[in-house]
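Fold it.
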Amino acid sequence: MDIRHLKAFIAVFEERNITSAAQRLFLSQPTLSVTIKQLEEDMGATLFLRQPRGVEVSDEARVLYPQARRMVAEAEALSRLFRGRENRSPLVLGIEGDIADSQIEAFVRMAHQALPHLLLTLEEGCHGDGRLAVEEMCCEDELFLPLWEESYVMALPVGHPMAKGEAGQHWTPIDDWITCAQHPSHQRLMALYGRSPEAVAGHAGSLKQALHMVAAGVGVAMLPQSLVSGNDRVVTRALHLPAPTRRVGLCYAAQALELPMMRGLHEYFQSNRPIDIDAA
């Protein structure tokens, strides 16, 4: 077993797909399959169960994954040290969709304040040693460190008839909602939409897509305050009903805290959590 085997294992574990992992590593699929088979033989355990579409990870793979990431990180750190490169420590973090730009930028800024020698890699989606995500996106085996809490607000196009009303006004039923049926927030917002199918003007696959539809004048959406702030084509109004809230923060597995950079970042954010999103 060597670092090459561990890098192959990490790629397949994170991608859950041999073909995608091979593309990520710039290897042929047969070569990657052989590498994984060699690692399984060395470990004396089955790490992946081949499925018609992708692979399923075994319990042994879940145990190996955090250890493999730490070993690869340490090996890469040693390589940089002896090659005379800048002594920076790597950390890979995923960014889930529907996180406001202001929150991402504040998070990265604070991460570098906490760890000046951090070599940070940001990836989209469920990847890395930890993730910046909404609490509902955390997996069952992950922990969550909240950084921001914010309310959902009613976002309207600037030309919408209700956009000229006073904030907090008791509105008549809305007949042009834009909904995100696949989003975790949908169930909590359904009571605001009403039951008539005619009350829906469009559907969006994400909250950011819903914001684009609002800005284009399609209809009205319930969106987190941070996503709407700064968009001059959208105005916000408060409903007469209590609006849901969401928490954005750091999702991570307990084993990830064995990585020095992840542990340092976690300790910093525990005592230096952002408070005002607009100030970010």
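The mean pLDDT is 84.
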